[in-house]
Amino acid sequence: MPKKKTKKAFDDLKEVTFLAVDGTERKVGDFFLASDFKKSQDGKQLFVSHESLQRVFRTIFNTVRYTPSVLESPKKTNEWCAVIEVEYNFNTKGEDNKFLYGATADCRTSNASSFREYTTAVAETRASARALRGILGISVCSIEEAKDLDEMADNSEDKPTGPQIMMIEKKMLKEKQWTVTQLSEIIGREIEDVNSLTRGEATQIIDKYNS
């Protein structure tokens, strides 16, 4: 899905208001950018990034405390499933109010194939995104809650995600002792380090490792 179609979809949302938990209505276009959203490959669904939800949240609210809790740890017998609950304790900037909002999410090898080595990290990000969407009153699903981030059609040139970088650095460079030269050979171009990769290239390397 070309980026211009994502922009058109965002243009349709700009004047739409979202109702956050503090009871204030705000316009999407006043807080979000077109680049905060991605279209699915079939063009039927729009997703918002966790990073953008965090940015908008921090613009409106002050975080008093963020608490993640592991409800289920990944192991072989549960398909390496991790279940994480997060809680945000916060207040509106400039106001003396207090809110507590939480959410739970899971991640297992069957619903995040590219990041099967880091189901706990992905589960926490999903739970955080889910909580932030609830706090802000955003109904659009987050990219991280999708089964596989590679389902996003126009994100292949974006920077690698945190779990991608973590997996490449820990599993391939450290444990398998792959070199940056070997990574360059897999993607067909010379890179200086992991941060030089695009998200699509990181996925290509992870797929090679998992094959």
Question: What do you see in this structure?
Answer:
The structure is a single chain. This protein has 211 residues and is α+β, with helices and mostly antiparallel strands. The protein has 2 domains: 3-155; 158-211, no CATH class. It is built from 7 helices and 7 strands; from the N terminus they run H-E-E-H-E-E-H-E-E-E-H-H-H-H.
pLDDT < 50 stretches: none
Instruction: Name the assembly state.
Output: single chain
Overall form = globular
- Percent strand equals 15-25%
Main sheet, how many strands, which sense, barrel? 3 strands, antiparallel
Helix amount: 25-40%
Distance between the termini: 27 Å
SSE topology string: HEEHEEHEEEHHHH
What's the quick description here?
By secondary structure, the chain is α+β, with helices and mostly antiparallel strands.
Observed structural traits:
211 residues; alpha+beta; 2 domains; two-stranded antiparallel ribbon; 7 helices; 7 strands; 21% strand
Topology:
Layout: H1 3-13, E1 17-19, E2 25-27, H2 28-31, E3 37-39, E4 46-48, H3 50-60, E5 61-72, E6 82-92, E7 99-107, H4 119-136, H5 162-175, H6 180-187, H7 199-210
Antiparallel strand pairs: 1-2, 3-4, 5-6, 6-7
Helix pairs in contact: 3-4, 5-7
